[in-house]
Amino acid sequence: MSSHGYESGRLNLPFVGICTFGKSPYQPDWDAIDADVAVLGAPFDFGTQWRSGARMGPRAIREASTLFSFGHAGAYDFEDDITYLPAETTRIVDLGDADIVHTDTIESHKRIEYGVRKILAAGALPVVLGGDHSVNIPCINAFDGQDPIHVVQIDAHLDFVDERHGVRYGHGNPMRRAAEKPYVTGLTQIGIRNVSSTSRDGYEDARRMGSDILSVRHARKLGTEALLARIPAGKRYYLTLDIDAFDPSIAPGTGTPSHGGFLYYEVLELLDGLAKQGDIVGIDLVEVAPDYDPTGSTSILAAQVLMNTIGRVLHHRKT
Asked: pTM surpassing 0.90?
């Protein structure tokens, strides 16, 4: 039985100390990553088409994540009767942020890709804190040379625009760029709804290029088990989660909120099932723009989803 963190002599409350993700150790040397999970910030929001501010997402998510760092020998879930993230076996490090070159999308994306490649080379699970959704483009680029992946997107918007006025790497383009990769075997796009960033021809292209597109209402009508059955089983999954997939009643802190979104447990149960039926090999969570939510609830939601997802990925890998 592992001991509580405060038995070391320090209480170390969430509001004390430095805000790494979940108060995990900071590893500034990207050539010395020795962990199961490595967290990387991608504070980039030059790809936004309306309200900016997601560049502040990584800091806000890290600060919110300290709420879940009480040191209680892991995170015991009494409904599952499982202790996730047990202290004695969980190895998470925070690498800090990829360097961003202001106004230079291509160079900034290269630096994000570099960080993700370092994580993959170390055999760790990359967890990237966005940033706008364009940061998914360099994350997917980093999987070139790896085994094939199936992309699972949870989002309000399809993000399948090919090009507008020469822009190919904004936050409306990432799923199109992913679908073009030979090592991406398909996409499941969940939560898509209302007036989208993608026109009808984009939806037609997405389906032609291997996407299964489901709205929130589709997902609710199917239920979690039937929804999971539509995602190819036994695959390597890359999970990209836009915070605007959630309803703005619980996640107002984002640049493009869209009413009619998911609630917390709908997404958590889907992610738990996904971690059971395949191997989640990469994660990004994007579009948290904390200045639009003075309550901090959106950042807390993002941190809570990530902590729970990481816990389930590590647990199901061992069972």
From this structure: yes
